[in-house]
C-alpha cells in the first residue's frame, strides 16, 4: 500500500536497526483516515474469503482490526495478554514470545467468541518473526476455526516470520514489507 509506505518513510523512526517506530500515526497516536484506508485495503484483499470474525492481539492491533471489521461488517475478537477478573468461562490459551518486549506471555480468548464454523482473518500492526501470529493461529486451531487469512500492516521481511507462514500455507498479505532498515534509510520489498 503506497500511502502506508510513504508515511513510514516520512514519519517512521528506525532504532537499533531492528525497531521501527511508527507511533506517531499507527500504534500510539493514530491517523484514523489512514487506518480506515488500511481497513478498506484488507477488505479488498480478503473480500472473497467469507470472513466471519477478525482476530487480533491487544493492544496495538485493536484499532486496525476495528477499522478492518468496519468494512467487513463482522465482529472483532482480541486476545488478551493479561488475566482479568472479567474473563469468565472456558478460555483458549496460547503462549507468545514478544519481539518488542523480549518476553513470553499467555494470550487468552473466551471460547464463546470463536467457534468451529468461523472463518477468521487475523490482523496486526507488525510482524517480525511471526510468534504472535503463531499464538493466534494456535487459538484458531484449538477452536477448530479456519484461518482464512492474515493481514499485517508492516512486515519486517528480514526477520523471516512472513516467509515462514507463507511456506506453511497461510495466505498472508502485508501492506508494507521492510526488506532492510537503518536510521534514515528504509528499503521496501
From TrEMBL:
GO molecular function, one term: xanthine phosphoribosyltransferase activity
Record-listed 5-phospho-alpha-D-ribose 1-diphosphate binding positions: 128-132
Subcellular location: Cytoplasm
Phosphoribosyltransferase domain sequence ranges: 37-157
Keywords, comma-separated and alphabetical: Cytoplasm, Glycosyltransferase, Purine salvage, Transferase
Gene Ontology biological process terms from the UniProt entry: purine ribonucleoside salvage; xanthine metabolic process; XMP salvage
Statement: the UniProt record of this protein carries the keyword Protein transport: no
One cellular-component annotation, GO: cytoplasm
Keyword Glycosyltransferase part of the UniProt annotation: yes
Catalytic activity field: XMP + diphosphate = xanthine + 5-phospho-alpha-D-ribose 1-diphosphate
Enzyme Commission designation: 2.4.2.22
CDD domains xref list: PRTases_typeI
This protein's pathway: Purine metabolism; XMP biosynthesis via salvage pathway; XMP from xanthine: step 1/1
Binding site for xanthine: 20, 27, 156
Subunit field text: Homodimer.
Task of the protein: Converts the preformed base xanthine, a product of nucleic acid breakdown, to xanthosine 5'-monophosphate (XMP), so it can be reused for RNA or DNA synthesis.
Family per similarity comment: Belongs to the purine/pyrimidine phosphoribosyltransferase family. Xpt subfamily.
Protein name, entry field: Xanthine phosphoribosyltransferase
Organism encoding this protein: Absicoccus porci
Origin organism lineage: Bacteria, Bacillati, Bacillota, Erysipelotrichia, Erysipelotrichales
